Amino acid sequence: MIAIVTFNEAITPDKYNDYMKNSLKVERAIMDFTQQQLAELVGVSRQTINAIEKGNYVPSTTLSLKLARVFSKPVENIFQLDEND
Predict the structure, then answer these.
(1) What are residue 80's DSSP bridge partners?
(2) Nearest to residue 4, comparing CAs of 80, 63, 13?
(3) 66 closest CA partner among 24, 4, 20
(4) Residue 20: its pLDDT value, please?
(5) Which sequence spans correspond to the domains of the chain?
(6) Are 59 and 22 in contact (CB under 8 A)?
(7) pLDDT tens-place values along the chain, 85 residues long
(8) How far is residue 76's CA from residue 80's CA, in Å, rounded to a whole number?
(9) Is 39 exposed, middle or buried (0-12, 13-18, 19+ CB in 10 A)?
(10) Which of 73-82's residues contact partners 24+ apart within 8 Å by CB, and which partners?
């Protein structure tokens, strides 16, 4: 099992949804992109896009910035930390 270690606790995959929210699916729908099309634009697999949308994977800073660039939006408009973080 992979865990992300923060200053206070380890974030396991089942807790990603509690840690970070995203509007990737909405942004993708607005642009009328399939998961495959978006994946090709940013150089990842369709499965990676699916995992991000479901909240099962927190993307790297680089991938987050690439996704934000595709949608011409600031990264914080697509990815949001939980209010308590």
Answers:
(1) 21
(2) 13
(3) 24
(4) 83
(5) 17-81
(6) no
(7) 444 444 444 444 455 556 789 999 999 999 999 999 999 999 999 999 999 999 999 999 999 999 999 999 999 999 998 777 5
(8) 6
(9) middle
(10) 73/27, 77/23, 78/22, 78/23, 78/24, 78/27, 79/20, 79/21, 79/22, 80/20, 80/21, 80/22, 80/23, 81/19, 81/20, 81/21, 82/18, 82/19, 82/20, 82/21
CATH of domain 17-81: 1.10.260.40
Q: What is the pTM of this model?
A: 0.76
For the record, the structure tokens of 24 come out as 């990737």
Cα separation, 11 vs 75, whole angstroms: 21
> Is residue 65 within 8 Å of 43, Cβ to Cβ?
no
